[in-house]
Design a protein that fits this description.
Its cofactor is Zn(2+). Helix content is 24%, strand content 31%. With 455 residues, it is an alpha+beta fold.
């Protein structure tokens, strides 16, 4: 796709088009695991924002058989991931776009971010789309600020479990295939849509207000989950009390039979490798990290990739909150340890605009978390937690920027926080941590959970 599309994010040129939005995706898919063959029909409900003589969709590595607009076939071209429907689209019009396509899906490759999207496992499939992999499996308007609802049906070999970032509506066996149908009613950006296919069995975890489950490969039992994944209900309840209600009907962790270098976030679902069953703190913190993204990244999502610290800084801070709640270390200890580590590294990263090469740099995660900690220290717990709760409540299902966050916390706290944000996210040099730890109310229970104990 041409990098000249209006609204293309400079961090991800060639993806997405701001001249229209997608309100809903309906994906009817068939997949053959043995041959890595995907066939589908995608129906998109679109809202056109300006007069257009063509409409651009992102679709990589798959072949298009036919395209329709409002039920009538239209001409198209498809080159380099840019699917162009050639027709006049008046501003303000709602249109129904249908694309019939198929082929052997493969990851989308980019110089900066590597390969993301649909990828074959040893026996199954993983879809890790952040930031640019969604077009590897469905035609879309691939920009993070274009959030839509979804209905996804996928037919596959009955031996496999199909998991999707949505709620299961049912499954139906017909011949040599089982069709799984999912709905996602909370608006979702394309990069958070996922399909996971494997020979999984379901383990249900007790102790949460919403269903929490793990999908595990053969040979994995309850004892393997005890020191990490079995604690997900407690993590979810802690984050809900601190930051407001969990935004989705359920939460799923998929554990692939393959090892994965890093776990993967998607909406109401996270994906881990068998190596994350280790039961050590490194695995446990990542389980907490991915779960916390359901608030920071999925409930409220960045409008621009440059603002990724709003996701990763808070998710990293949630690791420290869980460390304190579980008795491993205090938040203050975690903050000072990571501040000391950052002080030994190059200070050439601007957190509020790191550039595409550094947007996933670990220094952004840790300094983003330190920014959250500094903010909490400045305003105190009685202000901080309600302030973050109102931030998420106001932007539930929406898109946000750093400027919006700065304005929100200044308004809610009644303080001028310009100097804090200037030092922590708008300047490369690492500032010192304040001497005093975050102000807290006395608790009757151990850890942070006592701050939010039920009556």
């Amino acid at each position: 796709m041409s990098s000249t599309h209006p609204g293309s994010d400079p961090y991800l040129p060639g993806h997405g088009d701001a001249s229209y939005s997608v309100r809903h995706y309906d994906l009817d898919l068939t997949y053959k695991v043995e041959t890595n063959r995907l066939d589908g029909t995608a129906t998109l409900a679109c809202q056109v924002h300006e007069d257009l003589d063509s409409l651009h969709l992102d679709l990589h590595g798959l072949q298009v058989a036919a395209t329709k607009v409002d039920g009538k076939q239209v001409k198209h071209t498809h080159r380099g991931g840019d699917l162009v429907l050639k027709k006049q689209f008046p501003a303000g019009r709602e249109v129904r776009v249908e694309v019939r396509y198929g082929g052997k899906p493969r990851p989308v490759r980019a110089r900066v971010h590597g390969a993301t999207g649909w990828e074959e496992l040893t026996d199954g499939v993983i879809v890790a789309a952040q930031p640019h992999g969604a077009p590897s499996w469905f035609p879309c308007n691939d920009r993070p600020d274009d959030k839509a609802t979804y209905e996804i049906s996928l037919a596959a070999n009955p031996a496999y479990h199909v998991a999707v970032s949505g709620e299961l509506q049912g499954k139906r066996r017909k011949g040599n295939a089982t069709t799984w149908t999912y709905r996602q009613d909370v608006p979702m950006p394309t990069y958070l849509a996922t399909v996971q296919i494997g020979r999984y069995s379901e383990v249900k975890h007790r102790g949460s207000a919403v269903p929490v489950r793990s999908l595990v490969p053969s040979g994995v039992g309850a004892k393997d989950l005890a020191h990490g994944f079995a604690q997900q209900p407690q993590m979810l309840e802690l984050f809900a009390r601190m930051f407001g209600p969990y935004a989705f009907p359920s939460y799923t962790a998929v554990i692939t039979d393959d090892e994965l270098e890093i776990p993967l976030e998607s909406q109401a679902l996270s994906t881990f490798g068998r190596n994350h069953l280790a039961g050590d703190w490194e695995a446990e913190r990542l389980i907490a990290h991915e779960l916390s993204h359901q608030w920071f990244g999925n409930t409220a999502t960045l409008k621009r990739w440059q603002d990724i610290w709003l996701h990763e800084g808070f998710a990293c801070y949630c690791e420290w909150l869980w460390a304190e709640e579980s008795g491993r270390a205090t938040v203050e200890e975690e903050a000072r340890q990571h501040h000391a580590s950052l002080a030994e590294l190059p200070e050439d990263l601007l957190i509020a605009d790191p550039g595409p090469e550094l947007m996933f740099d670990d220094r952004l995660y840790k300094r983003g978390a330190l920014t959250v900690h500094a903010l909490r220290q400045r305003v105190g717990d009685e202000t901080f937690f309600p302030m973050i709760q109102s931030w998420l409540a106001q932007h539930r299902g929406g898109s946000v920027t750093t400027e919006m966050f700065e304005a929100h916390v200044a308004r809610e706290s009644g303080e001028d926080l310009t100097d804090l944000f200037e030092a922590w996210i708008h300047t490369e040099e690492l500032p010192d941590l304040p001497d005093q730890p975050a102000r807290r109310e006395p608790t009757h229970r151990g850890g942070l959970l006592g701050l939010f104990a039920r009556d």
